[in-house]
Amino acid sequence: MRITFSEWTKSGSPWIWLNAGAVAISIIMVVGLLALIAVRGLGHFWPADVIQATYQQKGNPHTLIAEVVERDMVPADQLRGAGIEVPPGAIELPRDLLKVGNRDFGSADFVWAMDHLVTDVTRPPMLFVAERTEWGNFYGYLRELREAGNTVARHDGYDKNDAYMALWNEFQSRIDRVLEIRAQILQIEKKEIGSINHEIERLRLKQRSLELKQSTDVAKFEAIDARRAELNAEYEVLQAKLLGLYNEINRDSFIAEIADGRQVEIPMAKIVRAFLPNDMGIGDKLVHYAAKVWEFLSDEPREANTEGGIFPAIFGTVTMVILMSVLVTPFGVVAAVYLREYAKQGFITRLIRIAVNNLAGVPSIVYGVFGLGFFVYFLGGSIDDLFFPEAKPSPTFGTGGLMWASITLALLTVPVVIVATEEGLSRIPRAVREGSLALGATKAETLWKVVLPMASPAMMTGVILAIARAAGEVAPLMLVGVVKLAPSLPIDANYPYLHLDQKFMHLGFHIYDVGFQSPNVEAARPLVYATALLLVIVIALLNFSAIAIRNHLREKYKALEM
What CA–CA distance (Å, rounded) separates 84 from 462? Predict the structure, then answer.
């Protein structure tokens, strides 16, 4: 039986295929975008080979030691206009972006080089890469190890042999020693001295509070002075220990030969890790790759956020989203319950619903400006006047911080929770309410023990939508608490443990800062992709957690809905 085109159209089959095609295209685009971000971001951590080559730049050959980062094609006419020698008949020529590093001994971290002018390319196994705490990567040949200015070991050849490997192994052992000392220094500076400074500051504020109250209790002042003297004595001990550790970490140095033949001396204290990329097998590279990815996830940033890790940004993002969810859920649910269960359904209620729906479309930066003016300056300033006068003129809550950022985003997302909760309340059969009331329950008991539990999946849907929107917001956070680099996490071992007044780092702002404010754009680009991928993963994990809770609640109350 043949079906005509009009009959096929009327059957609805074309629309089914169109919808299926649209969904398939959307999935392909999303997967493709995530794959692009993953390849560009995660590929940055792979230990690429380092080449040594001769570059004929305008008839002046010089040696290059570099990593090949990317390649593109340049029109030959453009090269001829720039005075670059081009082979006859060429239309396009490849150009390589090379990471030459050694910023402290050269002019640029990255250079562009025409591929046809790069000759004598080799990959010597003795070429090493050193990641440093500042000045980025170092590339060269290890020549000498020094301890307190005296030579410990030296190798002048270019062949990998037992003598060189003995030098390299000694180099690695001294790097391990430096890392251990650096860990001790960080422990003392951030934990022990940080705790002492925190308590000294609390004593100062306590003394200032007594002075403002014009207290005449000499015993209280004496107790503060005695405790401050104890803390200062502990500080002096730690400072002496810290000075000894700094002398230890600055004891060693090494001399390396760079591309132009110069031999330079570098303190061992600046080295994070060193490796021989051209001499590494697949297994060694996988181990190195895993270590780099773990560093990215668990360490603090360095080098203007272009090196190191982003753990403070991950921690700040998750903490802010959790606080926002805790704040937005009760407010959204209470508002929805009032509108649906208690408010008289009339013009005013309809007007409120229209206002709520319109609030969901207000640009986020407007919420940021409101949060800055109302929460930070008005509420925060009033809180400082009432509860923290001893800290003035330095603001406590009268400046951006974790609490104001969370409340601002809660205000931004509360319309979503209200709408989703109202939809859930409207789907609960009237017979369920009437049955509860008929059994003797009050309206409040019916609402609390029957209606709200059955509407909880809809509430979780609102929370999921709120998380999805709030976790990636950047514009309002720039006004109410997020910073480029936070000195410490908002949660630590110092009372009150959760510091709601403290500024924090955020993955979304980190992407903006690294991508658009970094002085080293080429070095920052891979981290933009990696951080963007991580932000997507964090949001997905938060959403999946909320979805799992919603599904559990849905299964739990499914029988009541039937």
Answer: 60
